[in-house]
Amino acid sequence: MLHTTIGNIGHLFIILSFVASLISTFGYFKSVQTTDLLEQASWKRFSRFAFYIHGAAVIGIIAILYTIIYKHYFEYHYAWSHSSKALPVYYIISCFWEGQEGSFLLWIFWHAVLGIVLINTNKHWEAPVMAIFGAVQVFLCSMILGVVLPIIDLKIGSSPFLLMREAMPDLPVWAMKPDFIPEDGNGLNPLLQNYWMVIHPPTLFLGFATTLIPFAYAIAGLWRKEFSSWIRPALPWALVSALVLGVGIIMGGYWAYETLNFGGYWNWDPVENASFVPWLVLVAAIHCMIIYKNNEAALRTSYILVIATFVLVLYSTFLNRSGILGEASVHSFTDLGLSGQLLIYMLFFLFVAIVLLVIRWKDIPSDEKEVSTYSREFWIFMGATTLCLSSFQIIAATSLPVYNKIVEGLGFVSKLAPPADAPTYYSKFQIWFGVGIAIFSGIGQSFWWRKIKKETLSKHLLTPLLLSLILTFVAIFFTTKSQVGDFFSTPTYITLLFAGIFSIITNGTILLDIFKGNYKLSGGAVTHIGVAMMLLGILFSSGYSKVVSINNSGFAISEKDEAFTKDNDKENKENVILWLNTPSEMSDYTLTYKGVRVEGRELPEYLHPKQVELIENDFHAVALEDIVQQGKKYYSAGDTLPVFPENKFYEIDFRDKEGKITTLFPRFQINKKMGNAPSPALKHTIGGDLYTYVALAPNLEEKEWSKTENFTVALKDTFFLNDYVAVLDQVKRVDTYEGKPLGPNDAAVQATIKVMGKDFRPYEVNPIFVIKEGLVAMPAIENDEIGVRAKFTNIDPKTGQFGFAINTTQRDFIILKAIQKPLINLLWVGTLVLIVGFVMAIIRRYREFKLMRDKGF
User: Fold this and answer.
1) Contact status, residue 196 vs residue 251, Cβ threshold 8 Å
2) How far apart are CA 654 and CA 593, in angstroms?
3) pLDDT score, position 674
4) Which pLDDT value is given to residue 740?
5) Which of 72, 218, 352, 562 is most exposed, with the fewest beta carbons within 10 Å of its own?
6) Alpha-carbon Rg of the chain, whole angstroms?
7) Rounded to 5 degrees, what angle do the CA atoms 650, 656, 660 make?
8) Distance (Å, rounded) from C-alpha 565 to C-alpha 637?
9) Beta pairing partners, 726
């Protein structure tokens, strides 16, 4: 049965939200344009009501789309594309925004929420600000409108409520069965089945949404010729935006760190860059907005940077969703035919902002006097300039595919390619920008709080400078002594180390001084300390990350696979082979690979494959024995339990020199959407992380066995299995088979074949011969440690000999890569300090705004 009604209602809500936002925009525009106070108030009430209807319609769209996904209405293309019956509720939430339409809807929702907040918190700016909000919502709602204009046959937007037969009309199944509904959906990309993906996208899109608020205030200020008064209400929101967007970016970095296997948290991917650049420009804008009070020259710069932040958010959306980065980024969406709309959306607001800015430019107040080198405004402006230069370098290289498209559109040929080694390319520039940001934050704060003059310069800055130099060389000494790295081999790192330490010392001493007076003013110093800690964490964890899985065996892991042989056999040298249950030495650890494990969705620990039998294409398994974990019985033998069959976890024991064992479970994922994907397991310590992942593992389900060899031997006889020496140690009667007792007329005997492995360790294979209910069973018994499969085929009581059929295959092994990430906790702790600083600054600036608002200013 097709659930078409719910989709029709959802599409009706989309049209309602689009029309209501359009009406609200028109009403607020009229309210700004009229000079009659009664008419202004009337248009405001009308527009406010329209925006509330818009917000209610957006909530209705979200409720209906989530219902379709949650109830598995797979007749809808969106539900079929992104969800499946096997997913738990928290991942079904992630399905909502995996697709383009759902992520646009999430963005629309946050704008609706923020718009309602603004309506009820700042009546003076309501009309012009909400006119901008409404216009943005009109464009965003058009992205999910999914209507085709008659006559010109122009499609506007892509609806999330398309039925399968509407989205894929050419499938032959519709001719045979028009009401066909798939049994299950494609499911969520397994790489996104991570708790960070439940909270990272909403946070990131909230960050994107909040950049609209300072933009709307800036445009409103230009529109109403209130050139400076917009700063006070916009500043707290700009800080909120920087906080939320920054946290969203860091969340994405941590998701990459613990889910992907490129060896870190930031890979300078084009989509990563496109979200990072607006944040850099926004932080620069915040600094200019702060110094405007002391120097009107910063007002024009504030306008430019606030406008640029929002336009860059739109540009990042265009890069991500137009398909233009399809070959340059693994994060980008495929083009749904919305690239033209996205381009119009971006160019419309860019055009409006530029035209207004040009028209009002001469009227914007500006301080014409030259800013002194010894003024606090100069040094803060220098920091803001560094942030802008950093963002320009990133976006210029990231935009090369766009440049190529523009040149091709003009009829020429452009073959400019993005950097082949993106981390190296970007890092060699960004290190110096990081140095500048750290230095200027320390000097700028000193000038801001200590009112430094030319005569007192050495008094205030000489001591922090000398102390920073001393601590820098102390850090270099201990880094070299502990063999973390050699700073003298990379002098650039010494400069960044000094800059980070200098920033912490200068901001730290200022923080102590502020706390003696009013701690509420210390948000800036705390934030800058957080940034400096993050820079130092990045310096050590990335600059001095060290591969410790060095292959000392003298043998290449692979002589044919290009992934191992390229770059002078790099991966052959930087990976180790771990054989099943065979201890191996690696750096400061003894490693033992214990075997493959299965992930149960509702279990605290992993399962041994022998405990369950996977049901193909069902995301469930049958328990072959009672499942008991941590002293609690979860399932009985024969029960069906939910599992994640695409995930294989490899249990590895890491024994340190003191004998302490840490067990890690790196994951290898059979991912049909993204290709097979290894995910790391992390060993956390105070001094850093051990980052490990399985680079290669044999598919034990598809292993090739040798031809069967038949052996007839007596007890204690020796025979040879390829390179192994085997002995039939004993044959004994057993009373159970497959965990169940045998009947009175049944019989079973089990052999113990001892095999001496290549490492001179004894292994056992225990084939069994069963007569049950008059039938003979000779199950194949495998030992993955040595790659032997044996069947007990015959018993000759007259001669006392026993027959066995033996096959051999590749032993179970994995290829492991391990990387030390020293002092990475400085990065995460610095992030928390940064967040605290932003929160303190937001509270302070909001109180200032509220105080002035309540006074009528």
Assistant:
1) yes
2) 9
3) 59
4) 80
5) 562
6) 33
7) 85
8) 47
9) 719, 755
